[in-house]
Amino acid sequence: MDENEFLAARLAFARRLVRLRVSPTRSGMFLVEPELAAVEGAVTDSENVNRVLVTTLPTNDARIRSYMEGVGHVLADLPSAVLFGSKVPNPVQRQRRYELVAALASSSGLPSCLLDGDKYADDQFAAQSDYFQSRDMLSLNEQYITIWCRRLLAPYQLNIMDAFSPKGRTTEQLLQQHLGSGEDALAWLED
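Given the sequence above, the corresponding structure tokens read:
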């Protein structure tokens, strides 16, 4: 994934998130596939993503999450009430919210392999949607989904919250860490 591909995925994800935010509010349970199809069918490439992209961080706070919480961003406290219902959902509803956001990120161009990993093994859950099962992804990771979706919304190289290391890492370093470099990484992305 090169810089242009990342920028395209960022814009596509922001457009999908705008459509998700303006979709009718639901409460209780929902199925991932119909919600994903509704969002995908509504995207027109004319969405105003200014209020979705994170463009400014306070100089004394380089953590995306803190800033997003301060501005009331939809992904600040994922899963949020904007994603259909209570801020304290039951486990199945919470996982469906994460899976929907993960599917939107993946359909926007983020490699699905970035949505799962062993680092936060306690935060894994079984993928239920046909979207991921058809891609042979048996589990998803809530922490990775949260981290990568927030990264997609930040349009510059900034340090991530200290989930990976005390020093933080830039988007490019994180992608290299997960995908490797050179021909192996390119082959993995093309699969």
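The first strand starts at residue 124 and ends at 126. Try to locate this feature in the token string yourself.
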